[in-house]
Write a structure and sequence with these properties.
14 helices, 67% helix
Length: 255
């Protein structure tokens, strides 16, 4: 509640509790605890607004001074490095504007290739004010493309947990744990999200559709998630999914 209130507002923290009510109804304390932990992180996703908030927090400055062992009164200079791409810019635009920008980037081949490198000294008045201006977009966040996309993905993830939890809590818990793949900012977030969507398409959806035995599905999701965490580039995940596809138990369930 404290995390999400600071991230957005009190109403956002209350939305978090309302979402958890649906998992609470499944009757598993362990599943509720794990889902609650991951949901708090997913709802406080990293964006340029969040990054600006973190970089201008008093706690961060105190931590930096402690790390460099600065004496009382001794000046410390911090240069922030930003490298936003088209995707990061689109993330804070209204959905309609963002879709146009992303479509243009894809059409021109600039997505994932065009970045705008910036160096900003947050310990100067001007640099700090620029970061605070970006952090001040907190109230604008619910109107952004990224916010809409994230909330839709969160709702799909929660529905998968609920659907699995009605028949197999172990499977539901493994689905909840897949939220660990979606983290960070920029390229890190994109790679993790891509791996997550691959697991959803090739394991989670077939399992929920009854095409994979429940016990085998829970083990398969755990193995695929581990492979994706070890190798975010996706090569280990691809090999793991190929092995899963070849397991007799899964083939029999699919048939």
């Amino acid at each position: 509640m404290r995390r999400l209130t600071a991230y957005q507002h009190r109403w956002y923290a209350e939305w978090y509790l309302n979402r958890l009510d649906k998992v609470y109804a499944l009757g598993s304390t362990e599943l509720l605890r794990e889902t609650a932990r991951h949901l708090a992180v997913r709802m406080s996703f990293e964006d340029v607004i969040r990054v600006a908030q973190a970089k201008t927090s008093p706690e961060r400055m105190a931590r930096v001074r402690a790390e460099v062992r600065a004496k009382d009164g001794e000046p410390v200079e911090i240069t922030e490095h930003f490298k936003p791409g088209i995707e990061e810019i689109a993330a804070i635009l209204p959905p309609a504007w963002a879709r146009r920008l992303l479509a243009w980037g894809e059409r021109t081949g600039r997505l994932g290739k065009t970045y705008f490198s910036m160096h900003l000294r947050s310990t100067t008045v001007l640099g700090f004010l620029r970061l605070r201006l970006m952090a001040g977009l907190q109230s604008w966040r619910p109107n952004t493309h990224r916010f809409a996309e994230e909330q839709a993905e969160i709702d799909r993830w929660l529905e998968q947990i609920r659907s699995a939890g009605r028949t197999n809590v172990d499977l539901a818990r493994e689905i909840a744990e897949c939220a660990r793949l979606i983290k960070g900012y920029g390229d890190t977030w994109q790679r993790g999200s891509a791996n997550y969507q691959t697991i959803v398409a090739q394991v989670i959806r077939p399992a929920l559709a009854g095409q994979i035995a429940l016990k085998a599905a829970a083990d398969a999701i755990a193995s695929a998630r581990t492979a994706a965490l070890v190798d975010p580039e996706g090569e280990s995940l691809a090999k793991c999914l190929a092995d899963i596809e070849g397991q007799p138990a899964l083939r029999m369930a699919a048939e």
